């Protein structure tokens, strides 16, 4: 890989300091740091070692172009061997890096073709009735839990069990059994974080082992009696040679955990934002046609994924700078969505604006396969929750997930329902 030079100008040095704070500090509000990067070094050359080095993009136009550029590919095994030498010894990365998220071009398209029908419009239209009934039932149970002004953690009470129940329906597994491992799935997602302590790495690998154990018997059962669910589709793909066994487990764990973990993060953040902006909450509550546009605006304002990584497979020009082949490229999705060159008054929540072309679900070939599912969950749950509890209010400071650099959201959201 071409060696990077240290930032030379004062603006570049200040931007590198902001980037370090993003990576190594617990930032509940990273948006001022994003603004600093956009202004001082929108294409930052980072001299940090291994995966943390390379080029950091913070403007919407550059991030959007990078995500659509076929010369920028997910980290391959060869790249990982150079940049993260211990990845093969860890349960989570050994499986996660064999999933569709890290496959490229024809291999990526082949796996996407296999799973896409489960996330298509017709399948989700069938699922919407179940989703609505589940949300109504869980909101009713929530009312009993929050009686007499008790403080309720909305994450534990609804923003976790609701998307978990939906993804269990898609996979054909028992949500009551899956609930025991729900937080393991949330921990497993942290293998995507750019900075991980040894303690976090151990927890992530333990979570991977727990979830592999949870799915061992369902996989065996589908091999005996396949069905129409997503788990059966993945097992058939493995049995027919489309996936090897490691790819089967990697895609199974990725699709299952991401299928509810991202929604936990987004729903929790969206509720927090609406409770902090009661006029916007009133629009979502009172206007039956507002939900779709509101969801996109909330995704723009604080998406569940704030950063994505790529490798330059050949020299490429990004934001007017030449990026050498083999360089890591970090795309700051959270920054792109608040770029004033992309949207007016980016730090203002306006659920009527619609927020076209946000990058909450990335873009290009690797656009999130579950984007429609996540949108639908929010469109169903948020208006229902606000109508049932019009005086709901925050009862304390939310607990944000950690490390929270790549994956944003809340782990605890205390409210009084009234």
CATH architectural designation: Orthogonal Bundle
Name the CATH class.
Mainly Alpha
Strand-pairing-aware structural class: alpha+beta
Strand order of the largest sheet: 1-2-8-5-3
Assembly category: single chain
Q: What's the quick description here?
A:
Belongs to the cytochrome P450 family. InterPro entries: Cyt_P450 (IPR001128), Cyt_P450_B (IPR002397), Cyt_P450_sf (IPR036396). This protein has 418 residues and is of the alpha+beta class.
What does this structure look like?
- It is built from 18 helices and twelve strands.
- By secondary structure, it is of the alpha+beta class.
- The protein has a single domain, classed as Cytochrome P450 (Cytochrome p450), CATH 1.10.630.10.
- Helix 13 runs antiparallel to helix 14 and helix 14 runs parallel beside helix 18.
- InterPro entries: Cyt_P450 (IPR001128), Cyt_P450_B (IPR002397), Cyt_P450_sf (IPR036396).
- This is Cytochrome P450.
Per-chain topology:
Layout: H1 10-24, H2 31-40, E1 43-46, E2 54-57, H3 60-68, E3 72-73, H4 77-83, H5 91-96, H6 105-115, H7 121-145, E4 151-153, H8 154-159, H9 161-171, H10 175-179, H11 182-188, H12 198-224, H13 230-239, H14 245-276, H15 278-286, H16 291-301, E5 307-312, E6 316-318, E7 321-323, E8 328-332, H17 333-336, H18 371-388, E9 393-394, E10 399-400, E11 410-412, E12 414-416
């Amino acid at each position: 890989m071409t060696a990077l030079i240290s930032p030379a100008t004062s603006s570049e040095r200040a931007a590198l300091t902001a980037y370090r704070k993003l990576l190594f500090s617990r930032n509940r509000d990273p948006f001022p740091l994003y603004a600093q990067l956009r202004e001082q070094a929108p294409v930052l050359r980072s001299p940090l070692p291994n995966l943390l080095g390379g080029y950091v993009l913070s403007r919407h136009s550059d991030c959007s172009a990078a995500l659509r550029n076929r010369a920028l590919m997910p980290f391959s095994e060869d790249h990982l061997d150079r940049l993260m030498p211990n990845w093969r010894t860890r349960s989570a990365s050994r499986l996660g890096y064999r999933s569709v998220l890290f496959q490229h071009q024809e291999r990526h398209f082949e796996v996407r073709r296999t799973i896409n029908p489960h996330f298509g419009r017709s399948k989700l239209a069938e699922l919407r009735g179940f989703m609505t009934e589940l949300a109504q039932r869980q909101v009713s149970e929530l009312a009993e839990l929050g009686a007499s002004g008790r403080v309720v953690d909305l994450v534990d009470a609804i923003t976790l069990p609701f998307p978990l129940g939906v993804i269990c329906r898609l996979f054909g597994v028992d949500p009551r059994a899956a609930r025991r491992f729900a937080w393991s799935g949330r921990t497993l997602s942290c293998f995507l974080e750019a900075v991980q302590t040894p303690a976090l790495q151990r927890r992530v690998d333990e979570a991977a082992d727990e979830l592999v154990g949870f799915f061992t018997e369902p996989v065996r059962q589908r091999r005996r009696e396949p069905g129409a669910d997503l788990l059966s589709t993945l097992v058939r793909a493995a049995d027919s040679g489309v996936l090897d066994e490691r790819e089967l487990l990697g895609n199974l764990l990725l699709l299952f955990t991401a299928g509810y973990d991202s929604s936990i993060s987004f729903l929790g953040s969206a509720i927090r934002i609406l409770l902090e902006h009661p006029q916007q909450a009133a629009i979502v509550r009172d206007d039956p046609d507002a939900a779709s546009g509101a969801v996109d605006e909330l995704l723009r304002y604080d998406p569940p994924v704030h950063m994505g990584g790529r490798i330059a497979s050949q020299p490429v020009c990004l934001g007017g700078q030449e990026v050498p082949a083999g360089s890591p490229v970090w795309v700051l999705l959270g920054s792109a969505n608040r770029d004033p060159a992309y949207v007016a008054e980016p730090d203002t929540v306006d659920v009527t604006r619609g927020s076209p072309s946000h990058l909450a679900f990335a873009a290009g070939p690797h656009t999130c396969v579950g984007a429609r599912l996540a949108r639908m969950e929010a469109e169903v749950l948020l208006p229902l929750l606000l109508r049932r509890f019009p005086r709901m209010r925050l009862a304390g400071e939310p607990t944000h997930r950690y490390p929270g650099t790549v994956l944003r959201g809340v782990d605890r959201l205390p409210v009084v329902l009234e």
